Amino acid sequence: MRVDIISIFPEYFTPLEVSLIGKARSRGILDIRLHQLRDWTHDVHRTVDDTPYGGGPGMVMKPEPWAEAIDAVIASAETEGALPRLVVPTPSGRPFTQKVALEYAREPWLLFAPARYEGIDARVVEEYRERLRVDEVSIGDYVLAGGEAAVLVIVEAVARLLPGVLGNVCSVADDSFAPGAMENLLEGPVYTKPPVWRGHEVPPILLSGHHAAIARWRRDQALRRTVERRPDLAARLDPATLDRRDREV
Ligand SMILES: Nc1c(O)cccc1[N+](=O)[O-]
Predict the structure, then answer these.
(1) Which regions of 125-219 does DSSP assign to beta strands (E)?
(2) Which of 22, 93, 204, 223 has the fewest CB atoms nearer than 10 Å to its CB?
(3) Is the pTM of this model over 0.95?
(4) Cα of 161 from ligand 1 centre, angstroms
(5) Three-state secondary structure along 18-70?
(6) 144-201 pLDDT, tens per residue?
(7) Residue bearing the CA closest to ligand 1, atom 1
């Protein structure tokens, strides 16, 4: 997978050089390319923003630098044999979920346009919807200084789904929110050695060796945690699943 990121803070993406993603890049599974948006400005101040039409606080990112940068990146489409999916992180986007991460993990090429200030002039998305699949996504209902943190979140969530990135493929299937048995379920508590730590014991069931009973206990813990902490997810569960929670101990 090729990933292009255009930003006025390309240095923000240094974390993509370490850990799982850094290893995936060194093994050629991920090809991440960073671009400085200001390289597509033509004034001495390398201006990328201006005051909003209609007045109001803050500044809006100008369309010209973004369009020149996106055009320059997609100019290599011939060698890629396809155009990228343009992903614009924004609080007004559709929710970025595990399902969307799985969708993106099937894409050969993602191009991220993280905005700063009050956002990018709306005509940029309008312009590229005619040529690219454009996706405005939100990682959550809170205010960030820009979309760069969202790109880090999205790239991590997607990269770990790519074949060869995670050592143990099973761990993806067991993820919280993963389609299938864990869909709409939070993961339960996890434990490791020592069996007793500062007087806190590991639940005995986990030391029993009874794998079926352990699986039932884990699912029950996941159900309980989901009902307690995420009633919105619990509401999506099959009522029969919730009923089983009370019977199985
Ligand atoms: N929430 C937010 C923001 O405040 C700015 C850019 C992107 C996002 N987001 O993706 O959720």
Answers:
(1) 133-138, 196-197, 200-201
(2) 204
(3) no
(4) 23
(5) CHHHHHHHHCCCCEEEEEEHHHHCCCCCCCCEECCCCCCCCCEECHHHHHHHH
(6) 999 999 999 999 999 999 999 997 655 666 677 777 767 889 999 999 999 999 999 9
(7) 91
What is the distance in A from the centroid of ligand 1 to the CA of 87?
12
Phi first, then psi: give them for residue 77, nearest 5 degrees.
-60, -30
* Pocket (CB within 6 angstroms of ligand 1): 89-91, 138-140, 142-144, 147, 150
Residue of 112, 138, 143, 155 best suited for mutating to test ligand 1, as the one with most atoms within 8 Å of CB: 138
Residue type, position 36, single letter: Q
Which ipTM score applies to this complex?
0.99
